Structures are given as structure tokens and as C-alpha cells.
């Protein structure tokens, strides 16, 4: 179609849905192939090869992702009619924002920010976040706001793959970086206990609701999209702070120090 | 704010708006500092140092941007009540999509795709586009759909800086690449005559409507946002195809050839 117009879609052949077990395996295979634990930045970070400024750049940019998670979850709940599902989902927001007195994941992330020498108010301001990080994270929030609930829940299932990376990270950071201790890494330690509950619920919900081949494809596509959201954040970090091509307006070493 | 909550906003001091001339100079300074003609990928491309596969990767990813421009313009027109403004804006869609018989910018881009050895249907399918490119381009379409009309028009003003980069590109590609001729480069040649009309209108509209310091700040922020949209696409291209860190699922050399 030299004018860029689209060819007619191929006739959809009706297919059998995969069994629950086979579909779960399909979702796990997406993580095995595409989850960001395979990105070279994580090998560098966990292996102790990141400079202090590379760690700071990671903390600043990953903060933006953390800070948008409760907004993503609120966008999801804003579309859920079932009080039971909203009630179940609510704990995700509580985990990140905290409850009166008790700090949440965002506060724990800012504790990490302070431990690596950053001013927590600078990090919380979102200044200096890489544009590519913003675009990816905002694409995720909008995906959850705009897409069918099944796709939205499926996009959260990268949590299935998170406990391993968090455990590796705690071990690697403790071994290699002076800033790392149980206080500065409390975000990851806490996620180790929080994530499995969310995963168990989200995975069961997706396996229950993806009851046709078409819905299974949509859920797999949503999880794939989410792996792109995570991967592209590390690509941007690598280009800007490992390769040293910091885009105009992004954080530069020396800014935002405590 | 160690819990990540925001400090109260500073008292807004009411400021004088800049004069028309001073405000136009402020907008042009944003281009001088941040437009993607300053990105190393363009020096590489125009200087003849891109491999055929680097050129193909650029054509595939830049196609995605081109393909979303008429959708962006339709999103803008969908919010404009003034028939005169919609009528003025309509030519942007016609320029890209063409009119019966006459090819538009998207068809001309696919002519370039074929000239560099790609299957135009592969390029038009959007397969293999870098996720970071999708996130940036979709952020632009949504910005125009969601933000005030002034911000939306201001975000189009990167066109002010395009004629120079198109002229440099035509000259550089013709000098350095065997695929380059007046047919394969017709997209850029045509933009040289189309863009100035759009720029003259868009710039005058923004200068007319940004009549307070706050609106001038918003217009400047919108133009800055747009420079980020363009820059981050080249960063992603560089990381994937110059540095060779192709993210999962993105185009790999050899795919999509004619």
C-alpha cells in the first residue's frame, strides 16, 4: 500500500483458548524473554559497577515510576464497578502512599535517595527526570486508564518477575555499595513481602477472565507492553548516564545533592 | 518532605508579559538550545557516517512519527470551535495524507523507505518501531488532545526550526548516499515549501494568544516538551542501532527488506 493505507485484516480464524496452565506459562515466557532483569544496566548496578552518579540517576528516574504507580492504581479503581475488586486493589495505593504515620513505598524510596546523597525534595520534585522516562511511565498510566480492565490488570503482572530482581538487588547493593543497609534498602525488602499478595491476586484474576484466545492475546500484549515500559527506562538511563549523552534539561551530576 | 508530599506552591508574583518580539526570541532560543538538529545522530546521518541499517532504522522509526502527525492534527481540530481555525489547520492533514490522486507526506516517506531497501508495507505496519519512539510520539498526540489550544499550537512550533534541518538533510543525503535522489527525498523537498506557511500561521497565532506571562510560560513549556519528543526519538535510535542495544521486539537488520 504505497500510500500507507492499511491492507484489509486477515480473516480471524477462531482458535481454542489455552488452558489455564498453558496460558500462565505463556505469560511467564514473556517475562523470561523481556523483563528488565535482562537489561545490562541491572547487571551493572547489582554487580557494583555503577558509579555513584549512575546510581543517583537511577534513583531519580526510578522515583518517577514509583510516584506514578498509585496514580495508575487510582486510574484503575476509577473504572472498577465491583466494590470487592476496588477493596482488593486499594492496598496497592496504601503500600505506596503509606497510611497515617506509617511510611509507604514512596517515602522509602526517598530514604534511598537521601542515602545516595540526593536531596529528597529535589527527587520528589521530578526535576531532571529523563523525558524518555516520563513518556514511558505516562504511557503506562494512560494504558491502565484507557484499556479494558483485563489488559490493565495483565499489565501489572510484571510484578510476577519482581521478587527475584529485588532479592538480587538487595544482595548486590549490600555487597558493593557503602550507602546500602537495611534502612536505605527498605523499599525493596518491603516489596518482597508486599508483591506476592498482589501477584497472586492479579494473576488469578487474569487467568479467570482471559477465557478466550482473543482475550489471552490481549493480556499477553498488555504484559509485553509493560515490559517495554520498564526496559525503555533503563535504555534511557544507559544512554544518558553510562554513555554520557544527557539530553537537554535532564539531571546532570552535581545537581540535587543533599 | 520525606513522605514525598509536595510543599505549598510559592506565591505567584504577577509579572509583565514579554513583548511580541521578546517572546518570539524566547521561543527561538528554545529551538537553538534543544531542537534535535543538535543531536549527534543527525550529524552522523547528514555527514554520511550512517550505515545502511542505521538509515533504515531511522526511516522505520521516523515513519511512526510521520504517521501520527495527521492524527495529532485531527485531535487538535476536534477541539477547535472556530471554523476559520479548523479550515486553516486542515491543510496539515491534507499535506500528510494526500488528496485523491495526489500523494501526501506519508506516501512520500514510504517512497524513501523503498529507496533504502525496505518493504513499504512493513514500514507502514509499524512493526519493529522502538517502544521509546511509540511512547514519545503518543505523548505528543495526547498532549495536543488534552492540553489548552495555546499549548497545542505552541507544541507545533518546532516547525520553525525544520526548514534548515531539511535543507541540510537533502544536501547531506544527496552527497553521501546512493539511494538519495529527488524522488527518494521528495518528502523533505516538499516540506521545504509546506512548512513555512504552517509556521507563519502557528507562530502568529501563539504570539497573538500568549498575552500574559503565564500563557507565555505555558507556550514555552509546550515547545520545550515537543523538543523532548523529538530528541528522545533520536536517543532511542542511537542506543538501539548505533550502540547496538536493540530492545526486545524492535526491528533488527535484515527484517522488513523489499
From TrEMBL, chains A, B:
Pfam families: TENA_THI-4 (PF03070). InterPro entries: Haem_Oase-like_multi-hlx, PqqC, PqqC-like, Thiaminase-2/PQQC. Pathway: Cofactor biosynthesis; pyrroloquinoline quinone biosynthesis. It comes from the Bacteria. Its EC number is 1.3.3.11. Gene3D superfamilies: Heme oxygenase-like. Keywords: Oxidoreductase, PQQ biosynthesis. The keyword Oxidoreductase applies. Residues 25-235 form the Thiaminase-2/PQQC domain. The keyword Cytoplasm does not apply. One of its GO terms (biological process) is pyrroloquinoline quinone biosynthetic process. It is an enzyme of class 1 (oxidoreductase). GO terms for molecular function: pyrroloquinoline-quinone synthase activity. Coiled coil: none annotated. It catalyses: 6-(2-amino-2-carboxyethyl)-7,8-dioxo-1,2,3,4,7,8-hexahydroquinoline-2,4-dicarboxylate + 3 O2 = pyrroloquinoline quinone + 2 H2O2 + 2 H2O + H(+). Belongs to the PqqC family. Ring cyclization and eight-electron oxidation of 3a-(2-amino-2-carboxyethyl)-4,5-dioxo-4,5,6,7,8,9-hexahydroquinoline-7,9-dicarboxylic-acid to PQQ. HAMAP family: PQQ_syn_PqqC (MF_00654). This is Pyrroloquinoline-quinone synthase. It comes from Albimonas pacifica.
Amino acid at each position: 500500500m504505497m500510500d500507507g493505507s492499511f491492507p484489509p485484516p486477515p480473516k480471524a480464524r477462531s482458535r481454542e483458548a489455552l488452558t489455564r496452565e498453558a496460558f500462565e506459562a505463556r505469560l511467564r515466557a514473556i517475562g523470561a524473554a523481556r523483563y528488565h532483569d535482562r537489561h545490562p544496566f541491572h547487571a551493572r548496578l547489582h554487580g557494583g559497577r555503577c558509579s555513584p552518579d549512575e546510581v543517583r540517576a537511577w534513583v531519580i528516574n526510578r522515583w518517577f515510576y514509583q510516584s506514578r504507580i498509585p496514580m495508575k492504581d487510582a486510574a484503575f479503581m476509577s473504572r472498577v464497578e465491583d466494590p470487592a475488586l476496588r477493596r482488593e486493589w486499594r492496598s496497592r495505593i496504601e503500600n505506596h502512599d503509606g497510611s497515617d504515620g506509617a511510611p509507604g513505598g514512596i517515602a522509602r524510596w526517598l530514604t534511598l535517595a537521601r542515602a545516595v546523597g540526593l536531596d529528597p525534595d529535589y527527587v520528589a520534585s521530578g526535576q531532571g527526570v529523563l523525558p524518555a522516562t516520563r513518556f514511558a511511565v505516562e504511557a503506562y498510566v494512560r494504558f491502565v486508564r484507557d484499556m479494558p480492565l483485563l489488559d490493565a490488570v495483565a499489565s501489572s503482572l510484571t510484578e510476577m518477575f519482581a521478587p527475584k530482581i529485588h532479592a538480587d538487588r538487595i544482595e548486590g547493593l549490600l555487597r558493593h555499595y557503602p550507602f546500602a543497609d537495611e534502612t536505605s534498602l527498605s523499599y525493596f525488602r518491603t516489596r518482597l513481602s508486599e508483591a506476592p499478595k498482589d501477584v497472586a491476586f492479579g494473576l488469578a484474576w487474569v487467568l479467570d477472565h482471559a477465557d478466550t484466545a482473543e482475550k489471552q492475546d490481549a493480556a499477553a500484549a498488555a504484559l509485553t507492553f509493560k515490559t517495554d515500559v520498564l526496559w525503555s527506562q533503563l535504555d534511557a538511563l544507559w544512554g544518558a548516564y553510562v554513555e554520557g549523552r544527557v539530553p537537554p534539561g535532564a539531571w546532570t551530576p552535581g545537581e540535587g545533592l543533599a
